[in-house]
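Archive transcription. Copying these from loose printouts into the bound notebook so they stop getting lost. Printout 1 of 2:
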Amino acid sequence: MAARALVVAALGVSLLAACDPLPQPLYSETTPPPAYRTQPGGVRIDNEGFQLDPEGYRIDKSGARVGIIDVPAKTAGDNSNAVAGFYISNTGSNAPGRVASSDAATTGPNSMNLPTPSQMPQQAPIAPAPANVPPPAGYR
């Protein structure tokens, strides 16, 4: 009996070792649809209904590109740096610029008028308190 169980266990382990544990998808059976469709006149429309120019950028009704940001023009004169003050090994020096301050985030127009926790009014206790509620009927 023990020999039979040993043979069955060895056969099961050998079958498991021969199988790939994860199935592999067959990418050749299905192809993903394109991110745009072409109208009969040759105009390309993306999945959200925006018309596309020849380079693939979204354009509005007047033909101007939508969502394009001129980063150098937008950041001109700004000397902030996400890693300012940290040592950059490939340049051999600390990163230039300034580190963003949290003072601007915590100080609002009414931040000086907020009460401290000791000045907050005391809350009334919840009635009935959860510890004082008897269990429902049939509950043990």
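Printout 2 of 2:
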Amino acid sequence: MKQTNRPRTALLALAAVPVLGLPVAATAVQPMMYEQKVARHEESLVIQNPIGGVQNSKWYDYRINVNESRKELASDLRHASDIEDQRDAWDEYGTELHQERGKYVKYMSKRGYRVPQVFFENL
């Protein structure tokens, strides 16, 4: 039995129709704010595994605080009424991530654990 691609073609045509009705401004890409760039960089530095493999109360506190900061950011962005509110939300988020990481690293370094780092020479 021969199969045809007509149903797929019809589905693709129907899926493209709503896109045509959008104004150009709705599909335009907005530039990223400075505060958002800083926050995204801090987000990339979030520690994914416990330092030294030690899962203590400070590790769990750190993970809880990071997750709470993410939830707070989402809430703040939902309730933002203007660009200044968005900037404040991203700034607060980046600052919180930076402070939480610093507190966790400082606590673990006092206990003798260091954050692993990789250095490349002669590249």
